[in-house]
Design a protein that fits this description.
This protein is an alpha+beta fold. The chain folds into two domains: about 1-60, no CATH class; about 70-113, no CATH class. Helix content is about 25%, strand content about 15%. It is built from three helices and seven strands. The protein has a three-stranded antiparallel sheet with strand order 1-3-2. A hairpin with a 5-residue loop joins strand 2 and strand 3. The radius of gyration is 14 Å and the shape is globular. The protein starts with a strand and ends with a helix.
């Protein structure tokens, strides 16, 4: 999950972790959340299982990054908002609207800063 510099700073304050313990900066300069090596889930998801459908609780839920808040809405190749095919719960969400695309495009711009 990509996160902005501001979101990384907020997660440092909320979690008490150093930035390199929960995210990395890719070759494209964008920060992305790390996964727990044992559970393969986000480092902030409290779970003991690596099962794809394992229950868990986000430990930074109130301060989670916008990408997490907006998921499973993602942008396709033409910058249209769609539901992510990888999400097993898409049937529980309304179809993506133009508003989702606008917010995700705004996030994309922030990620580049």
């Amino acid at each position: 999950m990509p996160i902005t510099k501001t979101e990384a700073r907020r997660l440092i304050r909320r979690s008490g972790l150093a930035e390199d313990k929960f995210c990395y900066i890719g070759d494209d300069g964008i920060r992305r959340l790390l996964n727990n090596e044992e559970t393969k889930a986000c480092v902030f998801l409290a779970t003991n299982s690596s099962d794809k459908f394992a229950p868990g609780i986000c430990t930074v839920y109130d301060g989670r990054p916008y990408g997490c808040q907006s998921y499973p809405y993602v942008l396709d190749e033409s910058d249209k908002a769609v539901l992510d095919d990888l999400c097993p719960h898409t049937a529980e969400f309304d179809a993506a609207e133009e508003e989702h695309a606008i917010k995700l495009l705004e996030l994309e711009e922030k990620l580049k800063q």
